[in-house]
Design brief:
Layout (H helix, E strand, L loop, with lengths): L1 E3 L9 E3 L11 E2 L6 E9 L13 E6 L7 E8 L4 E7 L9 E4 L8 E2 L7 E8 L13 E8 L2 E3 L4 H12 L26 H10 L14 E2 L7 H7 L2 E8 L2 E10 L4 E4 L7 H4 L3 E4 L19 E4 L2 E7 L6 E6 L3 H11 L15 E5 L7 E3 L1 E2 L2 E2 L2 E6 L8 E4 L11 E4 L5 E7 L4 E5 H10 L11 E6 L4 E6 L9
Parallel strand pairs: 12-15
Antiparallel strand pairs: 1-2, 3-4, 4-11, 5-10, 6-9, 6-11, 7-8, 7-10, 13-22, 14-15, 14-17, 15-16, 16-20, 17-18, 19-20, 21-22, 21-27, 23-24, 25-26, 26-29, 27-28, 28-29, 30-31
Helix pairs in contact: 1-2
Amino acid sequence: MRWVMRRWILAFFYCLIVIAAGQKSVKSAPVHGFGIRHINISAGCSTESDGAFLWENISYGIQHLDAQFLVFRFAHLRLPPGATVTIRDGSQHEATPVFQFDATSRHGKRLYTKPLRSHQAVIEYTIDTSAGEPDTTECYGFLIDQYRYAAQGVYRTPSQFKYERRLKASNTVVDHWSSDEILSGSTSDDPGDIGDAEALANQENGDSDDECVSSLDESEEAACTRRTPTVFELSNPVARLLVHKESGSIFCTGWMFGCEGHIMTNHHCVADQSEANSTVIEFLAQGPMCKYDCEEPLGCPGVIEATSSEIIMQSGEVAMDFTLLLPRLSAMERLNLTRKYGFLTMRSTPAVFDERIFIPQHPAGFGKRVASKHAATYGRVVSLTEPGCNGNANSVGYFLDTSGGSSGAPVISYQDNSVIGLHYCGGCMNSAIPANHIVQTLIDASKLPRCAQSEFHWTESGAGGAMAKRDLSSQPNIYF
C-alpha cells in the first residue's frame, strides 16, 4: 500500500508500508502530529481486535522513504516465557537482531525503542510452544501502536515566546511542536523557517529576530576543535537528546552536570516525567576527524547511554527554563559515564561582561558542533541584562551561531572552563539563563549535584577590573 503525503518544507515526500513475502499487512491510521505514523502490530492480551493469537509467529516489514530514523512505541508490553519480539534493520542483507524484547524486558505502556538509523525495519514475534501454549489467565501480549520517523529542532525566539504566552492567556491551544513548518533538520536561524506563529508574532510586536543572523554559519564540527584541546575535552560531556513528546519528537542538547551523572537541559525540551521516561541520551555523536560532515539529523552516531531518566528538579520556561535529569542507571554506571566523558560545572558567580565564550551543541540533531566565533571575532558576553525569551531582563546575551536543537547547550567560559549560562533562546541576540541563578536555585532546594560548582571563580579585582582567580578548595577537583 502506498500513501502520498503532502510535502512540507524540509519534510518528506511520502510513506510506504511494504508487505514482504510471508509478512502480515500493517494497518495504518492517518498521520497525527509531526513525524508520527499510527499502526497496529499486536498479539495477545490488551491489544486491538485484529491482534494475532499469542502462540502464532508473526512478521512485519515496514519501509518509510526519507525517514530520518525509525522509533517504535509499545503501547503495551508483557511477553510470556519463551516469546521474543525482534526489531532489526530491514535494509541489511544479513541483518542481525538490533533490538530484542522478551519476558525479562521492562513491562509497561508507552515504551519507545532506541532509534533505528534506517528507513526499513522488520518486526518479528516468535514463541517457543514446545512447553505448551501460554497461560491465557495472565495478560500476556504486546501492541506497537505507532512509529516515529522524524524529529525537529526546537527554535525559540523572544517574539515567538511572547506570542505563545498571549495565546495561552486567551485559552488558545498552543502546539508549535506539531507544526510541519517548524524546523526539521534545518540549520537556518531565519524566522521564516519556523512557521506562521513566529511571523505573526514579529508583525504584531514590530520585532525582527533575523537582523543579526549571520549568513555564514561559523560554528564547526567538534573534531575541528582538537587544535584547542581544552575546548575539545569540554565538549565531550555534551550529549544529543531525542525527546518524544505526545505531538512529535524533538532534538535538543544536554550535558553532564557534576560527578554523579546528572544531565542538564531546558524545560522546554523535557517538560514532564512522561517525556523524561523516553528521552534518548547520546554521547560523542560527532565525526572522528575534522573533514567529516555530520550535518544531518542523527548524523555521526555516537553512544546511546540512556533511554529513560528521572526528573530531579525543573523550573518553568517563564522562570529559568531548566530541567535536571538523572538517567535510570545504577550509581556505578552513572559514575562510569562521568569517567568516560567527563562532566561540566557551573559558576556560582555571575558571568562577566566581554568574557570569551563557546557553545558545544547539536543543532537540528546534527553531529556535535562548537560555536566560538561570530563575524570573524571570538564569541563574547555582550549583555548581562538581555530580556531573552522569558522577558526577565537578566539573561546572558551573546552572538554565536545556534539553531533548533541547540536548546539546552552549555555556554562555557574560556577563562575558567565554567558553564556561565544555559542556552535557551535564539533570535537577536542569543541568550542564556545565568548559571549562578540555576546554582542558587538548586542549592536552596538541596538538589545541587556533587562537584557541580566550579572549583575556580573569576572575580574582578583592582581598579582596572583585572580578572583574578579564586580557589574554592572545599570543592572537588574538576576532571575530564
